[in-house]
Design brief:
1 helix, plasmid
């Protein structure tokens, strides 16, 4: 039975890469949601007149 031994540093590096790669996407999603809200507000304001 051979157990796979992974150095802690490589695990930390891997999690660091995953964190940094997922951050920009979350920011993009946030900006997209904000833009959607602004568009929706503008649409409602236009339709009120």
């Amino acid at each position: 039975m051979n157990t796979l031994i992974i150095p802690v540093s490589s695990i930390e590096h891997l999690s660091g890469v995953i964190e940094t790669s997922s951050l920009p996407h979350e920011e993009e999603q946030l900006e997209f949601d904000e833009q959607l809200m602004l568009d929706r507000e503008a649409y409602y304001q236009d339709s009120q007149y």
